[in-house]
Amino acid sequence: MTSYTEPFWSALEEGRFLIHGCDGCEEAFFPPSPICPHCHSTDVRWEEASGEGRIHTYTRQHTTAADFEDGIVVGVVELAEGPRLLAGIDARYEALSIDDPVDLEVRRYDQAFDRGRLADSPFYVATVRSE
Amino acid sequence: MTGQPAPTVSGIGLVPNGRYSIPDRDLALGVIREAVAEAGIDLSAIDGLYMPSPRPWTPQGFFSTYLHRLLGLETRRSIEVATGGTSGGHAFHAAVENVRSGAVEAALVLALERHSLIETTGPYFDYVATLFDREFETPIGLTIPGVYAQSLRRYLFEYGIEREDVAEIVVKNRRNARANPNALFDEAVTRREVLSSRPIADPIRLYECPAPCDGAAAVVITDGPSDGAAEPPVSVAGIGAHHAASHLLMSHRNEPTELPAIAESASRAVADAGVGVDAIDVFEPYTPFPHIEAIFAEELGLVGRGEGVDACLDGTTAPDGAHPISPSGGCLGRGHPPMVTPLLNHVEAVKQLRGTASTQVDGAEYAMTTAEHGHVNGVTATVFTTEAPA
């Protein structure tokens, strides 16, 4: 058996960011799961997101676990399609504001944390889009 | 009213929050002896044991079973709970429900925390990383203050609150803790000291984080007042719990500044007690960061949305205010052994109702406590009263 989320990581390698849509209630959601968290329908499908979103909130964490760089900038990104997700933000903390437009970008994973079966998969960060 | 046994707090025991080098065993035995002695019962009368499952790094494993042998105790219920910060709240509620149903006649609720045994930026942060979505979030590297920092930023943004004013909630709770002999801190802090303390996760500063420490507490619940008890009985009038459809900061339904588990659990607890929130004279909540205390007041309807910080600034939540919150100092003033904080809140509520609190709210007859886990994703609420059950 393969992991349910395997299509997400395969698509990410190709530069596409996949989320889920529900045919039961028309809501989009993330992370992907075979059960819709809005209406509990199992009539769900993979959908490609635009990767565009806005910063809902954010922080700069000064002290981190040993596997991570200190001073990481992290935020909640609200995707144009609706779902929100946590993401690292590749930007200077001082330059950020709530509602800044961002794009999710595929990146090689560069922290020491062991992602197990996904150790060689890329990850994603948000970058600020100039409007 | 229903003819059910009335769960009654007959004895409490605790050690001051701090750092202990003695074994877990000795911390547990000390608070158990104190609580059982105060309840005026024989240890052999205890027929239920309830506790948060000790943290993964606690040296002694299989703790509740270990205690049964050590104490020569036989029970009809023995439960360890592992839901993070609500573990002590759920353990207490299980005890209350078992006493109400008659399954147990004398319940012992125990909690201990050995935070001093784990290095914060090492194995502890590694443990915290596992609390996030392992595949999509853990690789980002966030910790708990980084979660609360983001709800604080959004809270300031949504309601136009002055960031500096939030520090006043720390100032109040540190001031309240000064008189509490069991608190980690005995010195007050100024707004300026809070705001110039080390940044942890912007905009949260060190003094706005609950200080982790060791602790232990025990509570004996009997099925009605115990004849031999050393102190007047306090009834457990109502319990309520709720888990929102959320995990740390992420919810499909609510803003990070909304904490519906507080409102839902509290309304169930007061309904169970047969009163309204307006009957509560004093609150001892599990609110680990200052803006969470502000949102707590909002979720309970004590003040409107976005007015929780003002409620501190204008004295509403001071010990002599209309809605006293954390006269004991709470997590921010007492220090925070997460497995024990729910029971410490209960202990402080009981003291308020006995009239023996370190910062006493005059004439308190009803007290509410809460516990929470994650980013207040799950909450337990408990109402205590001096009133004898009808």
Structure, explained:
The complex is a heterodimer of chains A (131) and B (390). Chain A is mostly beta strands. Chain A has one domain (6-128). In chain A, 6% of the residues lie in helices and 39% in strands. Chain A has a five-stranded mixed β-barrel. In chain A, strands 2-1-3 form a three-stranded antiparallel beta sheet. In chain A, β5 (72-79) and β6 form a beta hairpin. Chain A is globular and about 40 Å long. Chain B has 390 residues and is of the alpha+beta class. Chain B has one domain: Peroxisomal Thiolase, Chain A, domain 1. Chain B is globular. In chain B, 56% of the residues are buried.
Rg of chain B, rounded, reads 20 Å
Count of folded domains of chain A: 1
Tell me which CATH architecture of chain B applies here. 3-Layer(aba) Sandwich
Strand order of the largest sheet of chain A: 4-5-6-8-7
Low-confidence stretches of chain A: none
What distance lies between the first and last C-alpha atoms of chain B, to the nearest angstrom? 5 Å
Strand content of chain B: 15-25%
In helices, the fraction of residues of chain B equals 25-40%
Number of helices of chain B: 12
Structural class of chain A: mainly beta
β-sheet strand percentage of chain A: 35-45%
The CATH class name of chain B reads Alpha Beta
- Mean pLDDT of chain B, to the nearest integer, reads 97
Shape of chain A: globular
User: In DSSP terms, counting alpha (H) and pi (I) runs of 4 or more, how many helices of chain A?
Assistant: 1
Spatial sequence of strands, sheet with the most strands of chain B: 3-2-4-7-1-8-13-12-11
